Amino acid sequence: MRISSFFYTLRQGIRNLFRNKWFTLASIATISACLFLFGLFYAIVINFQHIVKTAEEGVSVTVFFDQGLEESRIQEIGEAIARRTEVADIRFISAEEAWESFKQEYLGEYADGFTENPLADSANYEIYLNDVSMQSALVTYLEATDGVRMVNRSELAATTLTGVNALIAYVSVGIIAILFAVSVFLISNTVTIGISVRKEEINIMKYIGATDFFVRSPFVIEGMMIGAIGAAIPLGVIYSLYNIVLQYVLLRFPMLADLLSFLSVEEIFNVLIPVSLGIGIGIGFLGSIVTVRKHLRV
Amino acid sequence: MIIEERFRRSNTNNTKKMEVVKSVAEKRRKRNTALPNEIITLTNVCKAYSTGAPALKDVNLHINRGEFVFIVGDSGSGKSTLIKLLLRELTITSGHINVMGYDLARIRHRKIPKFRRNLGIVFQDFRLLKDRNVYDNVAFAQRIIQKSNKEIKKNVPSILAIVGLAGKYKAKPKQLSGGEQQRVALARALVNKPTVLLADEPTGNLDPKNSWEIMKLLEQINESGTTVIVVTHNREIVNAMQKRVVTLKKGVIVSDEEKGGYIDED
Question: How large is the ipTM?
Answer without folding.
Answer: 0.77
